[in-house]
Amino acid sequence: MNALAIVGSRNPNGQTARATDAFLQGIEAEGGAVERVFLPAGRFERCRQCDENGWGICRSDGRCVIEDDFAPLVERIRAADVVLFATPVYFSDLSESLRAFTDRLRRTCMNETGKAGIREKRTFGICVAGGGGGGAPACCTSLDRVLRTCGFDLVDTVPVRRQNLEMKLGTLRAAGRALACY
After folding, report:
1. Residue 165's pLDDT is what?
2. pTM assigned to the model
């Protein structure tokens, strides 16, 4: 099994990275190979809403006209057996980098060509809230909505708060193991 983690956090040692690592450790424990992509380290523009109707070739061709790291990452998603989306929670929602990526992905997936290799791809989500942590469930709902719109087979989303991170690390390892055997 090959797992790809798409992480919307700038901090490779922070809480979101720790939660991601726990999930991926579970996959590795079952013999899976893992790869991590930290979105803020790449070149990902926001959607330009190309034409006067707010669309572009994303709708007609299932691809994006912007030449940055988006298309190569979508190909890596297609090649993976399972994809993890992990994000810190900002204002009860996805990080800006994950939002920019998923907004463009959702648009390309409105076309059958764009959805190819993504439809029914197993995926998992982790939303990690600092502060009071109350926004993690709302963030999971947002992530669930966008991933299902893209056509992913979303196995689960896990809300994590800084207050329960240590407890959730074991849960995430177990989830990674289970998904590797799924």
Report:
1. 97
2. 0.96
Given a contact cutoff of 8 angstroms between Cβ atoms, the answer to whether 126 and 16 are in contact is: yes
> What is residue 100's predicted lDDT score, i.e. its pLDDT?
96
What is residue 64's three-state secondary structure? coil
Q: In this predicted structure, what is the pLDDT of residue 155?
A: 97
Residue type, 71: A
Structural domain total, the chain: 1
What CATH number is attached to the domain comprising 140? 3.40.50.360
Q: Tell me the residue ranges of DSSP E strands in 26-98.
A: 33-38, 82-88
Backbone angles phi, psi at 116, to 5 degrees: -60, 130
Q: What is the mean pLDDT of each run of 10 residues along the chain (182 residues)?
A: 97 96 98 97 94 90 95 98 97 97 96 95 97 93 98 97 96 96 85
**Structural contact between residues 162 and 133, judged by C-beta atoms closer than 8 angstroms:** yes
Residue 107's contacts (CB-CB under 8 Å, 6 or more residues apart) are 47, 55, 58, 59, 64, 114
3-state helix, strand, coil in the chain (%, to 5): 45, 20, 35
Question: Token digits for 157?
Answer: 């989303």
- Domain assignment of residue 152, given as a range: 2-181
